[in-house]
Batch of 2 targets.
Target 1
Amino acid sequence: MINLLESGSNSINNSKKTVSSKKCTLDSDCPDVLSRPRFSLRTHMLLMFILLSSLSMALVIGSVIAINHIQKKLHFFQITEKYLFDIAQARRWEKNYFLYGTNLKDAVQSANNAKNILSDNLKNVTIILSPEKTATIVQHLDKYREFLQELSVLEKNGIENTEKKHEIETSLRKHGSEMVKVAAALVLKEQISMNTMLKLIQRIPVYSLAVVLLLTTFLVCFFVKRLIKPLKLLVESTQKIAKGDFSPIPPMCKYRGEFTTVELAINHMIQELQLREVAMVESHKLRAIGTLTAGIAHELNNPLNNIMLTAHAILEEHNDLSEDELLEMINDLINEADRSRKIIRNLLDFAREGESASGPLDLGVLVNETIKLAQNQIKVSGTKIETQIQTHLPQIRGDKQQLKQVFLNLILNALDAVKKDGTIKISLEQAETPGFLSVKVEDNGCGIPAYILPNIFDPFFTTKGPGKGTGLGLSVSHGIVNIHGGQISIESKEGKYSRFTVILPSLNVPADLKAKSERRN
Amino acid sequence: MKEKLEILLLDDEIIVGNRLGPALEKAGYDVEVFEDPQKALNRIHEKEFDIVVTDIMMADVNGIQVLEEVRKKSDTTRVIIITGYATVALAREAMDKGAFDMIAKPFKPSELHSVITKAADSLGYKKIIAKA
């Protein structure tokens, strides 16, 4: 409760501050807005673009490298096949030689070819097979070639050393089959590795598509969140402002960016609106004073007339008057002059353009003073006023003049609404909401149609004819009650009644108790 | 014809009656002063006055109502309105409803005297007034 009260009085003070410090730069207004880390939407988009393009670039480079690799593999595979073919050919020729005694030279040639291929690609083979296995291949091939050489030497010399030949044949067969086995294994291994690689390459586009899709979805979601959330907050803030809440809007997103400019602009606008509101309250007050002044000028005629008549009576009959009569007349003069002074002072108190000062107030006294202020209008309209002011209520904290303006406005509106012989009921009591006081102003006048009820607190909304109402009264009242931490509401039935209820937060100490304790002190 | 003009003076401002009552008596009229409009209306129902001087803005009964009541009772009674709220609209309403004249407050006693004289004149009381 106390917080609410304090916030009410704070906002009154705030409005004063803004009036006094009209010129302030945008930057100095909202240091907390600007202290956030900077991350603009532009940077955000740039980062998104860079991320996505580097991803695609990585994909392209990866694919090029993979294809290159496959190409090399393919090339090597062809070489290994050629090697296998040469070895197999050498063995076929070797077989022919032992069967028919032909093709020994061809066998040597094929073996040499195989050897050339092997020595050319030794490095690659070492990588694929282990160095030991490579060494075995080379060893077997060298042995094979060696025995073939020996065999051709024997052939050249024409020596039919069958035992030796048989021995060589056995060794050749042994090394030859080993050689073929290892070469076949090499080819098989290469084939498997190439198939694996091809499969991998086949999957890469699928995987990368999935990754790109995921990443894009995430980035877009994040981006949209960064756009939508502040926009939603923006809409909420404007609705709040429309309801007359002029507190600065909270930061719309975690980072500083394009929306920071919007925030600053809106906060600036709020300040300007606040200034206008103050001006509007003032101008509405002037209007109310105008209305009252006409009435008060008339009201003053009564004591003036009394003074005039009494003065003339003294002037004409002073010789015939007894001392008592003369004394009575002089007292009348003084009392009527005092009455005039009170009438004028009442208006002046309300009209005084001073610092709006917030302080503890007795709402009952304030309501009665307001009724007195409008007394003349009430008298002219012939309306009956019924008051039910509860006593022993806690005080409230607020600006006397501004609150008088609210109640005066409600009373003047009610006077406009009632016909002759209408009744206006004004009551003050504890509100249903604990810690609040409620003032009700009810008239049995024309009422307000239900369809315009939602608009009646809007500025410039009026049902009175042109030149009769500015449409500012209820809007200004709403604003004043708001900054006091209270609420103003309306119930109405067309043709029957209108009841305005103003609730205001109360201080905890009842007014008369406080007055007593102050007296004691 | 009566010797003295009978005047009813109604104003909820006590001082008006206190000052004007004796002054009019002195001027030779028969004056009854009222502050309470209701009592004044009752008296108007009882008796036909020559001249009724009434205020307009009073707590319960409006001066215009008094005028209307007087008109119901008599066509000859002259009604003089005294008011602090003199506006053209009010003057027109009063005249339409048959008021004799309207005086705006504040006024000097002599102004009322001259209007009453005119009213008496219109009623044919010239001589009596002259005597007075």
Target 2
Amino acid sequence: MYQFITGPLLWLTFIIFFGGLTFRVVWYIRGLDWKLDRVAYRTYPALGLKGALQSIIHWLIPYGSYGWRAKPLYTLVFFIFHAGLVVVPLFLAGHAVLLEERWGISWWPTISMALADTLTIGVMVTAVIILVRRLVLPEVRILTTFYDIFLILVSVAPFVSGFLVVHQVRDYTFWLYAHILSGELLLILIPFTKLFHVVGFFLSRGQIGMDFGIKRAWKSRKGFAW
Amino acid sequence: MPEGTLCNKNPITTKEQLDALLADKTGKIYYEEMKHLEVDTEKLAETLQATCKSRIRTWLEICAHCGLCADSCFFYLANQKDPTQVPAYKIQSTLGEIVRKNGQVDNAHMRYCMDVAWGKCTCCNRCGTFCPYGIDMGVMFSYLRGLCFSQGFVPWELKIGSGMHRIFRAQMDVTPEDFVETCEWMCEEQQEEWPGLEIPVDKVGADILYTCNAREPKHYPEDIAEAAILFHIAGEDWTVPSEGWDQTSLTMFAGDWEGCRLQVEGIYRAIEKLKPKRVLGTECGHAHRATVIEGPYWLGREDGRPPVPYLHYTEWVAEALRTGKLKIDPAKRIKEPVTLQDSCNYIRNYGLKEVTREIMSYIVEPGYFVEMEPCKEYNFCCGGGGGLNGIGIYRQWRNIGFKVKRDQIKATGAKLVIAPCHNCWDAIRDMEEIYELGIRWSFLKPLLLKMVIVPEHLKPKEEAEEEE
């Protein structure tokens, strides 16, 4: 079982994950239409690139944009949530071991266990805050669907199970399998759901950045302030 | 009754149709007919297929439903944070529904879309700057307006506006002859005070071609006179076109994309015919958006720019003050708290925030200019943009929406609001009528005329002698 879910099934997961996201990126870029979007993408590559980078970078940095600064608490929760989601799976020592065992990659950087734990707890706590916020604030509740809640649960499941595995609560094998399978489920779902924002964020922000860089803020010395 | 006699899917293209629609005062019959207008779902699906591409589809799909856009919307704030006014909700429940159902929607849904697209959104694009993904719901609402228009679901006034543009190439029934006559009349009227004042019509190769808003010749001809006097003082070589002089676009507000193209085409034709070095538009926000920012794309210009540099009035004023073509008498500068209304269309959507502040530095005594909070690209819409000022059935909604701008102005403590945009100017006037803040509001032109230094040789003879 372990061999299968960390072997062929994992490969299949990666193929779907990377294949699906590649399709998303290609489909998005091919669907950009300078006439319909009314942005002269090709005519002003430099302005476009500058605008796109400005837009992406300002929104990647905590409190880096006017919008983030307008919502200081939410921004804090948002960045703690996402920092854990990205950093832990990529740089966990336990995951790096697999890389070395399977592919002989020994140079992969890792984070300390303490940091991994802190980040994981961060993900779980902020997920609860995000869920409660969804249900409590009327302006968010009106937008919330079961789909949104499902996606949060799917995203957090590998972290909860992983945390239990690492801390060997009991039933190690069950939680290990639950962790691996929920992780694979998450990766498979990403391209097919709005979780595809792992690339979609950069595409969408890049596009609006180009729009303002090329067209809607080109008269301003510094472009749009974001 | 699938198609009404007044309310139907065909744009107004003849004077007879226009008169029939105008005769239906406030659109009583028109809106009654709309209740029975059939939705051509097949055509809607085709339009989506052809025009709804990855950008909009991704925006609709990727929306995280986080609600961060809520506080960015003045309608949401003005309506006691009514969740149905959250921009993401508004767009998902309208355009989102049409896209998810691939156009299979009914009459009731289209009428709901119309109410939201025109009565609950002014396409100010503010929400787009607060969304972590950069989802611009103003852009999507203007797209939705296009879908609604193509199916005949458009407010009565804007159906008329679109027809005006298609028939007169102006938003009002002003013909080229009327326009030229108004220019001549204004010129004559000013001769005593401004000897030698000219409004050159169709002069080829001038430095500046001046285009305006049809309301000016129709309702405020003195605005044209003021523009002429300022050009006269600045010593500009300028002209107006007899055709292609109105740069406004109620077609843009209406979602009449073909009408938009026709309107801008007329102006660009004038540019090609008269070969000016530059074109300058009046103090209007949406006219600039239509003609300079979006217009090139409607005409399929790959460079996304007009044929020659096309300035907003504020750009010219700043330049004239900077270069000394217009000199301000320091004694006559504004010496009272004064604030500035940033027009969404050329501040947030064109980047002229620095230019407008530069003007303030010349015309306001230091220490008296007070910024609104928030301002510049984050400023709130005046409350009447996107055509809302002119739509009768949403008047009450608009008046509630005014509260945000009202409170912003109140907080500055200023009694004078400079509003270099027709829509903002109107909105602030109506706001004053309703909420009685005791404020005044003004375009730049009349303010400049009060404080500009007039060169001796331009003064009338007697006056000059008297002074000696």
